[in-house]
Amino acid sequence: MNAAEQRDPVTDWRLRGELDGLKLYRAFEAGSSWIWIYRPESGSGPGVVVKKLVSGAVDSHAAQREFGMLSLLEQQFSRFADLHVPHPITHFGDQRAVLTREIMGDRVDRLFVKTLRRIRLPSPSSRRKAASVCDLIGRWIRALHDSVDIELLGLPMALGRSLHDRYDAARHRLADLRLSPGHLVPAFDAYFSRLIEDQGTARPVLCHPDFTPHNMIVAVGGLYVLDVSEIAYGHPLEDVAFFWAHLEALRLSGLYERNRIAQYQKRFLGAAIGTSALPNFWERWGVLMRLSYLSRSWEHAGKLRGINLFRRNMARRSLQRWLLSQPWDVSLHGE
Ligand SMILES: Nc1ncnc2c1ncn2[C@@H]1O[C@H](COP(=O)(O)OP(=O)(O)OP(=O)(O)O)[C@@H](O)[C@H]1O
Ligand SMILES: [Mg+2]
Q1: Ligand 1 pocket, residues with Cβ under 6 angstroms
Q2: Ligand 2 centroid vs 33 CA: distance in angstroms?
Q3: Which CATH architecture has domain 106-333?
Q4: Which of 181, 310, 315, 325 could disulfide-link 249, Cβ–Cβ 3.0 to 4.6 Å?
């Protein structure tokens, strides 16, 4: 029994009203939270999802922040019929809990694995669905970047500075876990510290720092993107590169259909930024961030078993090999 299963929040009187007439359908531990899904007694959804933020790094305003951002984005995305966030119901700051309406659909990471693996051919219709989801994902991130009415507290940090900070955090995580070969670190450092400055002149936009398929659900009504509490100002290619690198890891791993993934990448980039390829700098940035992200999850590896652990290892190795194969000479890559 996992930690979420051990404790059912319905026992707390403050949550009880919201969950009247519903019964616990599923409980599980996610990356930084515990999730309880309640459905109507009849057993058919949609129900209510209780997300309790439990990670050590989460502050007491996190639930309020997530609720507030969901409300703002729901308004902002109401002009699109097929782009959404989960509908926020309420939040309980002291318990770090946010309640949202359950989305009944397929998680995009699972959809990709199902439709892209080389063994067991998927049906043409599920392939079409997965390919069109890439357009939706691209349009979703473009819509976030174009959001005009959302003002975050505080001024955006200078872009060059925030890119440097993010690079340093990622690089240290990789070095701590000995995932980047020591002799290459100086080359990464030289490359990024020189070229980050050139990127710092872009106009900052709202970015989703965890823009990854396991935070996306595709349902009858379109695409829902979860986990919005950390949305902050950043470079318009940061989250685009991060998502692209997820597909790149699948493409490089050898387990999935390479040509089809390349098409998905193009469709995504076309919808997100109107081009079919990323600049070299942003490919490298995306791959480095993705590798660092997989390493972070690696710290929670106790939760990952079997095929998921195998896939994660595979993705990590492919990305690492890709980084090692790049020429890191700054003078070759002035962009
Ligand atoms: N409204 C919802 N409808 C359906 N499923 C949901 C909803 N909210 C959360 N989930 C499920 O719970 C999982 C974890 O939610 P979320 O991503 O918000 O938490 P997290 O702590 O960031 O987890 P992770 O690190 O795994 O992304 C999602 O991947 C999804 O499967
Ligand atoms: Mg998440």
Answers
A1: 30-33, 35, 49, 51, 86, 100, 102-103, 107, 214-215, 217, 226-227
A2: 9
A3: Alpha-Beta Complex (3.90)
A4: 315
- Which tokens sit at 106? 């397929």
Both tokens of residue 163?
């890119």
Distance 215 CA to ligand 2 centre (A): 5
The rounded Å distance from CA 67 to ligand 2 centre is 14
Tell me the CATH class for 3-102.
Answer: alpha beta
Protein residue with least CA distance to atom 8, ligand 1: 49
Pairing of strands 216-219, 222-225: antiparallel
How high is the pLDDT of residue 229? 87
SS3 at position 334: coil
Q: What does the domain layout of the chain look like in residue ranges?
A: 3-102, 106-333
Collect the ranges in the chain with pLDDT lower than 50.
Answer: 335
The span from the CA of 189 to the CA of 121, in Å, is 42
Pocket test for ligand 1, best of 18, 90, 101, 215 (most atoms within 8 A of CB): 215
H or E segment at 133? helix 124-145
